[in-house]
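Amino acid chain
________________
===
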Amino acid sequence: MDRNLALEFVRVTEVAAIAAAKWIGRGDRRAADQAAVDEMRSRFNDIDFSGRIVIGEGKKDEAPELYVGEVVGQRSGLEVDLAVDPLECTDSVANGRPNAISVIASAEKGAMRVGPDTYMKKIAVGPAAAGKVDLLAPVADNLKNIARALDKKVGELKIIALDRAYNEQIILAIRQAGARVELITDGDVAGAIAPSIPDSGIDALMGIGASSEGILAAAALKALGGDIQIQWNLFKHPELAKDLLEAGWSLDQVYSRDDLIKTDLVTFTATGICSGPILKGVSFGADTIKTHSVVMRGKTKTIRWIETEHQA
């Protein structure tokens, strides 16, 4: 995959982000998501490639567009697998909260390991702390190791976590160990990536979050050099245990970034919708619209930050 599709995908995430941003604060999460889906699906078809959706809007009978198994693009040339979220953080857009993005990850066919749409226990760190944490270790031990790797005191660490009842115990453990917690209502793709972005102010992500977001984050971390560890958690969907086992997953094993994305031939593209820890949101002016995007390529480890001015 010598061609850098991420540079072509940025036009896709830009239009999806702009479409969703028009719904910020309007209280209609479905309309915002549909606007992003429609734009992403339409713009994909301008690109000369054949992309198979492996993470998308749901099964074919649940989603008319960008469903798992759908093929997008002009259906010729390079074949890749795609993980897409046209609008990650629908509630953030609906309620005018921060941290929403439009995101696409691609990998050579068969290299992106996926599973059913459920939950994972996660820990994500930047390059300096990669290999220094253990998802199954006590929170306090992981915080000490992160602090040592970053040449900080535990009290100087800031850990990002989803503000959910199922994360109450890990949030309490982080605070009892002396570290600070930044709670987010949604958006742990950006939360997992943030520790690998200099000056993000985030040192690690901890807690339970959605499985699709974990795999999307792993794609970005292939380029950034950070790591994510996950373990499947079926507290909401115990009926999916059979599906996971049949797909070759273990419910007990801890999986790392390289287990989730089995190649360096991976790209990650995201455009901010509402400002968050890694991207600024869409800005509407009198005659122009400004977007802020990041484009990453695993093979070359290149990270491009792109600010674009669009005619309104």
Observations:
- The mean pLDDT is 95.
- DSSP finds nine helices and 14 strands in the chain.
- The longest strand covers residues 79-88.
- Residues 5-110+265-311 form a domain with the Fructose-1,6-Bisphosphatase; Chain A, domain 1 fold (CATH 3.30.540.10).
